Amino acid sequence: MNIIYKGKRTGTVNEIRKILRTPRKAESLVFNLTKMPHETTSGLLIVCGEVGKESAALYKAKAGEIGADFIVGGSEAWPSTMKGIRKVFDPSRHQAILLIGSATELPSTSITHKGSSSYTDWFIQDADGDGIPDVPVGRIFGPPRTVMYHMDPMIIDSNIAVVFDSQPGRSNRHVQALAKLGFDVEVLEKFTPQDLKLMCVCEFILQFSDGVYTSRIHGTPEMWASHNSMILSYEQAAQINFEGYPFIYSEACCTAREGPLLKAFLNQGACYLGATMDTMNNIKPFDDWPDCAYCDGYKFGLLDLLDSYDRLGQVKLQVERVLLEHLNPNAQREIESVGKSQSSDIESENALSVIEWVFFGNPMRYTTVGPNADYTPGKLIVDT
């Protein structure tokens, strides 16, 4: 079936193999683009790291153009950045925080888990210092062209969602969820050049895989050893000229590390949510996502709340607030200790599953849902 069309109806799903698929007409993949209104971007507090004087001057001027407040951070430890934010943050004016700079140019919070080290921006969401995240945070880094586009992006309303699945067929619950959110869903096993136009106009990409800085690969040892293991490489991602600032949610270990694949997505004009450390699957069912502090709890929490909030940053923030509230006290104390700079170690897998996700992009981006979006996950099964 041909899934690409607009209208006031529920979403559709296309999982037909490529050889059987009806070719799309180019005119069916043309959609209106709009600028994010400056009355929206004016709700940003922009915090710029040590990106160089010339770049910082460009970003300050752009912040003035879009009506956002602008302050300069530094390359000191994250508590220093947090102190500067709390001095100027005004909850009556600032609806979100946009960090400019890599994790070295504007440091994140260092965390460790089972001997591995990484970082997170989770604690910068706590603007009032009570230990609970209360403001959406996004991060952007890269050349000035990339940073300024994310500050003031073009927005598409195509209702097209693309799913890259390293093991298609294990479950289609996430696919059906996207359809209930009003998307026309296309399931792809790997990148192919003939799908470039489709990806350029998509509004949402959900990808499952294992991988490294440079690429995403299929999720079994047998596939890793084969020449067919590649789902999407950074060279391929760099070919996709996203037209309207899509939301990419990458569910896999270390998908938010600042490597070539993430840089390609940001440079090509997408906002992106990934994890900086290992991600874990639940090994028992849960009655509802707030009690499931694993990958599926986070994912289905996002899908549940996409139709409940106006901005992507609000959705991420609320998912993490709910999961934090439902953690056991020991896991909560581990997170609290990191927030107070008493420790950097997270032993609990559940605590890690709450704080390791980093949003790259403008947190004021409208939520990506189709018409008549209405989805509630219900019971979460074991779906590894």
The proportion of residues in beta strands is 15-25%
Judged by helices, strands and strand pairing, the structural class is alpha/beta
- Unreliable segments (pLDDT under 50, ≥5 consecutive)? 1-9, 15-21, 211-225
Number of helices: 13
Overall domain count: 2
Alpha-carbon distance between the termini? 29 Å
What summary fits the major beta sheet?
Answer: 7 strands, mixed
Radius of gyration, in angstroms, nearest whole number: 20 Å
Task: Return the CATH topology of the largest domain.
Answer: Rossmann fold
CATH architecture of the largest domain: 3-Layer(aba) Sandwich
Mean pLDDT: 87
Name the helicity range.
Answer: 25-40%
Number of strands: 18
What is the general shape?
Answer: globular
Name of the CATH first level of the largest domain:
Alpha Beta
| Spatial strand sequence of the major β-sheet | 1-11-10-12-16-17-18
